[in-house]
Amino acid sequence: MPPLTDRQEDILDLVIQEYVATPVPVSSKALTEQYDLGVSSATVRNDMAALEEMGYLAQPHTSAGRVPTDAGYRYFVQRLLNDTELPPTEQQTIRHQFHQTRLDLAQWMRLAAAILARTSQSVSLITTPQAAAPNRYKHMALIVIDNRLVLMVLVLESGDVLQHTLTLSEPASQDLLSQTTDRLNRLCVGLTAEEVLDKASQLDVLDRHISQRASDALHHADTAGARIIHDGVVNILSEPEFESEGVRQTLRVLEEREVLDDVLDVALAPNAQGIQVMIAGEGRWDELSHCSIILSRYGVVGRTSGALGVMGPTRMRYGRAISAVRYVSQVMNDMLRNVHPEDSAELPETP
After folding, report:
1. Do 252 and 342 belong to one domain?
2. Is there a single domain that holds both residue 338 and residue 234?
């Protein structure tokens, strides 16, 4: 990210705060009238022009003020956002609501979804925790389909057979792929998704790429079938720009599920830690180019875990949403500790 001066950071921060509060482009005049910046409107206008040139702000129309870009939101989340917590009274209310419910995971999940939606004013989601022993690698075959397109057939120790289409960075012959599978079948037999991923870091380019995809397939098999509970669709439908592309994308992702499953796999990956903020698909998911998703894992690492979070258009109250996701994740972990005290040492912290 291009470095900013202290004043440019202050201006970017204020533009985002103003734009999130009301989806109207923010002008230099509006900032100088509302905030004591100690400089003239012309100076603020010059800084806003510099922020636009660096890609943090955009000007929808020549005569309009500026709005944050995806890069601007990322800079805000990574550099400017204070690590705030929900107010103590709000935390107490949330814990009280959980302790009022029966010892019933389904009820906890519905309550978590409702609390996240209400607190963040976004769409919330939480997955049912997926259990137990992870799947293990048994045998793999690779079949050339066309040019760089390859079919991966992965057999698990459970007897399940997974088929995934891979796109290689460059064409590979069937003989070369057969040699690759011979090596990986010797190296990875009996390993879990996380163990295959660890092996991948030691391999050459092609073997590493194939083993990483095998690890992804194993991990997806571990988490497949998770039910998703969501709440708060009405929150984004009531926004002033409810017909925006961000709202349409959010609804589409909830309905079609394929992209959401992919994103949740990231949140539940063996190496995933803490709160994860994905803005505009992070260049990985075109279907999320106008959405933001904030996720955290909850549960018993390596045994039973799920994901919870919020999603909506990129014009989001990131500080409050992140605080809500972090706190509800902590509460869910504490509830599970009370039910399964023998697993307490394995529950993740949520930094």
Report:
1. yes
2. yes
